[in-house]
Amino acid sequence: MGILILFFIVVVSTRVMLYGIIPSMLGLLTYVLTLYYAVLWFLPYLTYQFLYKRSQGLIGTLIFPLSAVGVEYLNTVLFGSWGSVAYTQFPNLPLVQIASITGIWGVTFLVMWFGSFFNWLWDQGFQWLKVKKGCLIYTGVVSIVLIYGGLRLGMLYAPSETVRIASLTPSQELEKIQDELEMIGFSSSIEAAIEARESLRQILNKIYENVLERTREVARSEVSVVMWPEGMIDVLEENEAAFISEGRNLAQSEKIYFLMAYLVIPEKNPRVLGENKTVFINPEGDVEWEYLKTHPVPGSTDKAGDGIVPLSKTPFGRVSSVICYDMDFTGLVHQAGKSSVDIMLVPAWDWKAIDPLHAHMAVFRAIENGFSMVRQTGKGLSIAVDYLGRTQAVMDHFTSARKIMITEIPKKGIPTFYAQMGDFFAWLCMAGFFVLVVWSLSGVIQSRKNK
Fold first, then answer.
1. Are 250 and 364 within one domain?
2. How far apart are CA 226 and CA 128, in angstroms?
3. Which of 41, 172, 304, 420 has its CA 20 to 30 A from that of 426?
4. Residue 239: Cβ-neighbour burial (10 angstroms; 0-12, 13-18, 19+)
5. Which of 184, 207, 202 is nearest to 194 (CA)?
């Protein structure tokens, strides 16, 4: 009965926690996802309840953190790292440096181990002679992690050459126009959307020049790179080539690297199979890459990209980019770590319910892979960090008047163990959990034979 009560509490708590985070526009899918995450977070408690008393001593306390890491990792492969316990530790910079070795899984392991370790102390009646060895082991592990983090922050953070990057989000005037655009034909039938296309074209043509001129003004702030947030503007498919050409002219005339981020509205079917993409242009006006968002958010009808993270070599290091939700997938971003990327540019678009959580989640990818990051966000917190996760600049979209962020970040990243080995620790935890399950069950079988 107790385990059923716990499950009910987890379901209710999950619904409260995810309220607004899962958009209500998803309808029934909202409740399906809520139940999914409730089951996900309940599984470690269930396995712990079933196996803990069948194990012995301090080893039994590992069941809870090992199973928690396992379910988090499998969820990340499928749907991204939303809900990871590791993200609760964002303010504890020394602790989260362990992500440079283990990824977020090391942070999750330590946080969850505290719960089962304390439960073990409780079961032992807090009798020092019984718990002394366990306390020394647990505090020793945590101390090593914190010392590592402190040394990493102190020894690796040295003055270095920086690059100046500017990023901007839509002005208030443009936001109002975009809200109007969403009402033109796209809430009705496909036929109506096609008929409304000419009206849409006329409005977009009026604001293209405004957006590019505002970008040009920002580019004159002695910066090397200018970037837009995710979906800065809608672009009709038939106008895309001309739009990119305008961006190439801007980059060439201002001698900057320019990351355009926009949404392509298909010509034949405006309501589905759009493209959420970025185009990276160098100071010579050449297109370095076009990247399509690899992981459209659940419920989106956009095309998915090929999953290949782009890379450019520039005078200020190796530059890469993914889009918003892509940063939640550790395996995808690990491509940048393996390629020794120095700077990650992340166009994003959030909403109030996930502000500033989603920005903080992205910072862990920088620590894991050893790159600095600029994440420019509409309707949320824009943030720039170095390769240690130290904040270099922030901009709150809801309070900023200019909606422009200019920051300087290191030109060079640093190598990390995680960048080479990826999510090995998660696999190690899953293997360890399997071993403990077999060991616990074999002990039960042996005891029954003895009876």
1. yes
2. 60
3. 304
4. middle
5. 184
DSSP for 210-263 reads HHHHHHHHHHTTT-SEEEPPTT-SEEEGGGHHHHHHHHHHHHHHHT-EEEEEEE
Tallying the residues shown for the chain, one arrives at 451
Q: Of 223, 205, 125, nearest to 165 (Cα)?
A: 223
Alpha-carbon distance values, 343 to 279, 312, 414 (Å): 16, 10, 11
User: How far is the C-alpha of 8 from the C-alpha of 144, rounded, in Å?
Assistant: 38
Portion of the chain with pLDDT greater than 70, in percent: 90
Q: Do residues 312 and 288 make contact, with C-beta atoms less than 8 angstroms apart?
A: yes
CA nearest 320: which of 264, 365, 265?
365
Q: CB of 290 within 8 A of CB of 258?
A: no
State the residue range of the domain holding 268.
162-413
Q: What's the pTM? A: 0.91
pLDDT in tens, 357-380: 999 999 999 999 999 999 999 899
Q: Which pair of tokens denotes residue 142?
A: 């945590």
Q: Quick check: is 418 in a domain? A: no
